[in-house]
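Q: Mind making up any chain with structure tokens?
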Amino acid sequence: MKSYPAKLILFGEYALLKGAPALSIPLPVYSGSWHTVGQDPCTMPLPEGIYNFEGLLRAGVNCQAFQDARLCFESNIPMGYGLGSSGALCAAIYDRFAEHKTNDPRQLQQLLAGMEAFFHGKSSGIDPLTSYLNQAILIQSFEEVVPVAWNPGDDLPCLFLLDTQVPRKTGPLVEWFLKQTETPQYQERLETVLLPANLQAIHSWLGSQPEILWESLLRISAFQAEYMQPMIPEAFRSLWQTSLNRQDVALKICGAGGGGFILGFAKDVQTAIDFAGAYPLTFPFNSTQTA
């Protein structure tokens, strides 16, 4: 059964709002797939109205065949964590039921954005595009996306997700950030510290340059601790400060922040486990997936 992975904005989640690049990668450890409707309840029931949503029709989805198939989308992608649960569903619908698919990334992004608008009212299309292609996406801007070849290698830091188990709301955090950027001092720090570090992190990650990547991660983490504190749940701010005094662990905001996952980097799996203590971890690209 084909699966459709979650997505993670690895770098640039807020920088993207200011026109800076971002990097989105698929997370196969979280995914969804089609199953025939049975007696057991679906993990992600299909909402009413989706079968005749205009965005699906514009994408060339055969909505009658979709409805007649009586399928359920079984998914372990956490909802409300910024990992693209609705994006994976849209990718699955397009892949299975679109009658004339396109291979053009930009056109795909537009079609999938129109489909995901069913869930969010507005979508960039990046989440379903990453899931559909199952490939890293370099986002130069919302209008320019480029699939890139990348494989997690042993020379890069170990990536982990720390589950805060704290609910979040994206809208107020984005509004707060955009309001701060209206302040000249904040905008100056953004342009001279965060945006260059973000760009360097993207290039060093794709180019497998761990020493340069660590420098970038530490700058990003320190900036977020000082200038993006509302995005860090209060119960985790002490742990975040502890990480700033180390050279083998770095934390950064995952998605909008404020709850859900915190994105972490460590020299190795054991370092991450020792650092996090009792907090639950997921290692998306290591054989030890959870701890």
Remarks:
- The first strand starts at residue 3 and ends at 11.
- The two ends are 27 Å apart (CA to CA).
